[in-house]
Amino acid sequence: MTRDLAGVVLAAGAGTRLRPLTALRPKALCPVGGVPLLDRALAGVTRATGTGPDDVAVNAHHLLEQVAAHVGASVHLQVELPQALGTAGALGRLRGWTAGRDVLLANADAYLPSGLDDLVDGWDGERCRLLVREADGAGDFDGHDYLGACLLPWSLVSDLSDEVSGLYEVLWRGEHEAGRLDLAVTTDVAIDCGTPADYLRANLHASGGASVVGNGARVEGSVERCVVWDGAWVAPDEHLVDCVRAGTRESAVTVPPSR
After folding, report:
1. I need a surface site. Which of 114, 132, 171, 255 has the fewest CB within 10 A?
2. 63: left (phi > 0), else alpha (psi -120 to 50), else beta?
3. What's the whole-model pTM score?
4. DSSP string covering 65-93, please?
């Protein structure tokens, strides 16, 4: 651990673009390479913060019972009702738990297989440090896109309220205009798993291009470049290509990447 950091993984999003998959489970628990996205994010964060409810927090809103059951007592769980608080509001409500520490923040739906070590190493502890890559277009920050992980000094976290709000609007935009953002540019693989196409792409990267078949799934037909969730079924007469199969034998859910 390089600094006294509090780790926060944001897992409250409704995942509307991933429906109907996120009608079955929260986006944070959708598996990539057989591992829930939330577990991947926690592994990256806890390398720098340590583990346990004193060192890492997870927020939950959509299908929060599933998130709560999954993490158990291993983290500090912040339940957000009646609505999710957004990226800034969540941190505002966690100020008492953060207790003067700087924050390492990660979105649960950000697939970052290289981890967060390069983000954490060498941070000055004074500026917001955002993991970014060069954008195809204009980008949000000097031609760069945010990749779902950042470091935030306590001096700025302490001013956040627990009202529904986003970090870009209440913090980063102003810091950017003042020239105070520290952009950690990476060329490593980084995939926002917010859409079926990107979710499938993350899985195929994790598997090296092979279909990913979960525990307890039954593939009696054939699959090609697919994700088959645990417990799902592919019938003998089915040949699935480039899609996600979820649900059960009695109630199958098939999501193509174009959805």
Report:
1. 114
2. left
3. 0.94
4. HHHHHHHTTSSEEEE--SS--HHHHHHHH
Rounded CA-CA distance 40/106 in Å is 10
Pairwise CA distance, residues 200 & 256, whole Å: 9
- CA 240 to chain CA mean position, Å: 27
Burial 220-246 (b: 16+ CB within 10 A, else e): eeebebbbbbeebbbeeeeebebbbbb
Q: What are phi and psi of 253, to 5 degrees?
A: -125, 120
Alpha carbon distance, N-terminus to C-terminus of the chain: 41
Q: Quick one: residue 236, left, alpha or beta (phi over 0 = left, psi -120 to 50 = alpha)?
A: alpha
β-pairing, 110-111 with 191-192? Answer: antiparallel
Give the C-alpha separation, 105 to 109, whole Å: 12
* Nearest by Cα to 185 from 104, 118, 117: 118
